[in-house]
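hiii so um. not sure if this is the right channel but i have a protein structure encoded as tokens and i wanna go backwards to a sequence. like what aa goes where. can anyone help
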């Protein structure tokens, strides 16, 4: 089961995903993103040290490091 958050503005459900990408100079980096449907890269919980927030204008969820 993927970590899910409901948008306060639109009421839509978003599922948290994670994958490792390769940047231009060959460095690998883990990225996190929300999608409307749970896919194979969906993860069950928030990563350690992160929290969710919602963009006030668009209603899209985002991750940020805890302050």
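sure thing!! here u go:
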């Amino acid at each position: 089961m993927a970590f899910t958050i409901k948008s306060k503005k639109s009421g839509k459900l978003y599922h948290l995903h994670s994958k490792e990408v390769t940047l231009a100079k060959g460095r690998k980096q883990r990225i996190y993103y929300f999608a409307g449907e749970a896919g194979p890269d969906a993860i069950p919980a928030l990563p350690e040290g992160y929290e969710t927030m919602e963009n006030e204008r668009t209603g899209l969820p985002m991750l940020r490091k805890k302050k």
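oh and Residues 4-65 form one domain.
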